[in-house]
Amino acid sequence: MTEPVLTTSPPETGPVLLEARGLTKHFVLHRARRAARAARRTATVKGQSGPTGPPAVHAVEDVSLALSRSGITAVVGESGSGKSTLARMLARLIIPTAGQLLLDGKEVPASNRDRREYARDVQLVLQDPFSSLNPIHDVRYHLARPLLVHGLAKRGAGLDEAIKGLLERVSLTPADQFLGKYPHELSGGQRQRVAIARSLAVTPRVLLADEPVSMLDVSIRLGILNLLGDLRERDGLAILYITHDIASARYLADEIIVMYAGQVVESGPAQSVTDEPSHPYTQLLLSAAPDPDRAEPPSLQGRGSPPSLVSPPSGCRFHPRCPHAMAVCAQRTPPGTQVASGHLSACWLHVKGLDTEQALPIAGRPPGRPSAPSRSAPDPGEET
Ligand code: SF4
Predict the structure, then answer these.
(1) What is the pLDDT of residues 346-372, one digit of tens each?
(2) Which residue range forms the structural domain that includes residue 286?
(3) Which atom of ligand 1 is nearest to the CA of 324?
(4) I need a labelling partner for 196 at 20 to 30 A (CA). Which of 91, 109, 231, 308 fits?
(5) Number of structural domains, the chain?
(6) Contacts of 292 (CB under 8 A, 6+ apart)
């Protein structure tokens, strides 16, 4: 495991409900495990030293975060950055390789014991409302099931009232009109509202929303984002909003955590991270976000593509793409450095005291702190 990267300070919105400390997930490649075992056996026969362990996908490395009551934390990054794996570990659908989960300050066991109880507090909303609802069941069935399974309602008039209450909470009104509808009879936005209502059925305190608007038309994204904002204000939910769209993260969240190749590279208050991004990767994300006020297309130096997570780059994982990479970047993982109040960046550009050799540019690229894009993030409704 690499050295700790960053820890976000909890937002000042309420007590911390769910906390992750150093969460790590490595997925072992099973076919490669057999090959590694065979290579070890061969090496033993020959009296040589073989490979030490099977190769693994280093999906998430040492991520810490805290979700507070009435707070929204956004996790931003491109595909393959480990955002969804992180959400699934927080939902206990995936058992972490290392790290701790704490609910109300008490450690949650790594095994699946007491998972039903945990699910009443922590619910996950998936990206694709088309596949998260069963096409052969109507809305009434989808909302009745969690109420019955968790013993929160009994069949009869009370159950129907509870279901209608859930539909009203997600603004699907008049509720009677939606009860008998099947998923194919609903729009994408309505389906996602039903999926959110299903999560709310067990009165959770933490909602993990994994790209809840990315499959929806641009015109209805804002409605779902506003619904999440209402839920935090009205019900005091702690929300983790996972997205690849940094503009919508700024719109909705109090805190932003930027992930790259399984690691946190920057974190802090949403406005500070988007107005003064200090990590070159965050700057790259912002420069790629559409901006109607920008006359010239952005210059995406070092755009490249994400690295393999089976054998990730040494040192800073962004160094093969970074236009500011220095010698030290390829050798050592950058520590989290405070660049503003509550705003941390894992980049050697912000570490004082590097010697001349360490600060030598890679591939002739001059080191130096890149300037932040001088603009605010655009409206999330404009993201495509
Ligand atoms: Fe990583 Fe170095 Fe670029 Fe900072 S300057 S992002 S540490 S490669």
Answers:
(1) 999 999 888 887 888 875 555 444 444
(2) 1-108+207-215+233-293+300-379
(3) 5
(4) 109
(5) 1
(6) 378, 382
